[in-house]
């Protein structure tokens, strides 16, 4: 269907366009030799969908139809398109065109944190969005992106938030206490993410499309909703740097949703020095690959129990107690530090699960 097709094309564009076309290029200034490349066609297609999300369906189709009729059989510059659509819609599209058309690469949006406060019979939701950028040293202005507030029946109420630059603050008043708050839950923004969600009610294996993640659901008697996002941007850095430990400069994962008490699952994360993925992280056989976890942006990244299946160049990392939160690849540089120096083992103490959802068991 349309969503699946666009998701796959968008992921391929984020993964390969800058490699195949020899760099990140702005849509309005693509070199002649790559006129028919992935940037022009695949990124061009995703940017049209991003503009649709920015304006909303009704205004998008009305204004684009007027634009096509007005400039029929004429050559038109990107600046003229921006100015016409701005005039027709009454919405200043300078920020959108600067970020999506005139600048190489793709914006990346996430929610750094949120807070829910009861106010009478309603709930005030404070949302703190964050922006990064894939492929350029740039931050978009006048960002408009959808957020979804999910209830415990997996129903979404959506709204839009507006912000500029690296971060923002938006306040929404809704009539229920959300169990999850997600940015762009229905994949309309076409930013530097690949994501989707699924509802589970029985044990199964499930590969989340275009995320490099597979779920092994071992137990589930009540319904659970899990969303997996593959972020095509660097994770937040360590709060306290550790010599010899490098985080991925390129990508990380996020798991969100509502998991029942019966939900028990393992996760499989893919790494590869080839395939245009982790060559900027894994530099040589001296790099020992690991997966780090944090529950939210307040926490520090930390090690969790895991199993690596593969070589130093390519393979999978398995996590036996999958939890909601963020996961990132990292490497220990063995020329600087021995990985064994950062492993704490006491056969007389057992702590589980790690990560946890609020309850930790100790056995001595």
What does the model show?
This protein has 364 residues and is α+β, with helices and mostly antiparallel strands. The protein has three domains: 99 residues, Neutral Protease, domain 2 (Orthogonal Bundle); 83 residues, Aminopeptidase N, middle-beta domain (Immunoglobulin-like, Sandwich); 173 residues, Chondroitinase Ac, Chain A, domain 3 (Sandwich). The chain is 19% helix and 37% strand. It contains five helices and 20 strands. Strands 7, 10, 11, 12, 14, 15 and 18 form a seven-stranded antiparallel beta sheet that branches. Strand 14 and strand 15 form a beta hairpin. Helix 1 crosses helix 2 and helix 3 crosses helix 4. The longest helix is centred in the N-terminal third of the chain and has 19 residues. The chain is globular.
Number of domains: 3
Query: What order do the helices and strands follow?
Result: HHHHHEEEEEEEEEEEEEEEEEEEE
Total DSSP E strands: 20
Global mean pLDDT:
93
Give the CA-based shape. globular
CATH topology of the largest domain: Chondroitinase Ac, Chain A, domain 3
Largest sheet: 7 strands, antiparallel
Short structural summary:
The protein is of the alpha+beta class and 364 residues long.
Set down the secondary structure blueprint:
Blueprint: H1 2-20, H2 38-55, H3 57-70, H4 78-89, H5 94-100, E1 106-119, E2 122-134, E3 143-150, E4 156-163, E5 170-174, E6 180-183, E7 193-200, E8 204-208, E9 213-219, E10 224-231, E11 245-247, E12 252-258, E13 264-272, E14 287-294, E15 302-303, E16 307-310, E17 314-319, E18 325-333, E19 350-352, E20 361-363
Antiparallel strand pairs: 1-2, 2-5, 3-4, 3-6, 7-10, 8-9, 9-13, 10-12, 11-18, 12-18, 13-17, 14-15, 14-18, 16-17, 19-20
Helix pairs in contact: 1-2, 2-3, 3-4
């Amino acid at each position: 269907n349309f969503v699946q097709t666009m998701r796959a094309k968008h992921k391929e564009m984020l993964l390969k366009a800058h490699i195949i076309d020899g760099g990140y290029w702005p849509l309005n200034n693509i070199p002649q030799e790559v006129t028919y490349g992935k940037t022009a066609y695949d990124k061009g297609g995703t940017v049209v969908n991003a503009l649709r999300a920015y304006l909303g369906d009704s205004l998008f189709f009305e204004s684009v139809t007027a634009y096509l009729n007005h400039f029929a059989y004429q050559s038109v510059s990107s600046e003229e398109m921006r100015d016409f659509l701005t005039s027709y819609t009454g919405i200043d599209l300078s920020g959108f065109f600067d970020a999506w058309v005139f600048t190489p690469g793709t914006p990346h949006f996430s929610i750094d944190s949120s807070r829910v406060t009861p106010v009478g019979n309603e709930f005030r939701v404070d949302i703190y969005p964050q922006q990064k950028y894939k492929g350029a040293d740039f931050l978009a202005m006048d960002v408009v992106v959808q957020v979804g507030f999910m209830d415990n029946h997996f129903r979404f109420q959506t709204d839009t938030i507006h912000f500029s630059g690296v971060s923002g603050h938006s306040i929404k008043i809704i009539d229920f206490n959300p169990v999850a708050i997600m940015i762009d839950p229905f994949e309309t923004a076409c930013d530097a993410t690949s994501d989707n969600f699924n509802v589970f009610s029985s044990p199964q294996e499930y590969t989340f499309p275009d995320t490099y993640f597979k779920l092994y659901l071992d137990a589930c008697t009540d319904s659970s909703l899990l969303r997996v996002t593959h972020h095509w941007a660097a994770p937040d850095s360590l709060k306290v740097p550790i010599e010899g430990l490098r985080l991925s400069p390129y990508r990380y994962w996020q798991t969100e949703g509502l998991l029942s008490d019966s939900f028990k699952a393992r996760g499989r994360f893919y790494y590869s020095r080839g395939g245009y993925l982790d060559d900027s992280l894994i530099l040589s056989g001296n790099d020992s690959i690991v997966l780090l976890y944090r529950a939210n942006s307040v926490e520090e990244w930390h090690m969790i129990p895991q199993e690596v299946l593969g070589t130093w160049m390519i393979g999978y990392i398995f996590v036996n107690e999958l939890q909601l939160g963020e996961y990132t690849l990292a490497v220990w540089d063995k020329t600087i530090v021995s990985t064994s120096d950062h492993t704490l083992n006491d056969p007389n103490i057992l702590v589980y699960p790690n990560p946890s959802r609020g309850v930790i068991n100790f056995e001595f």
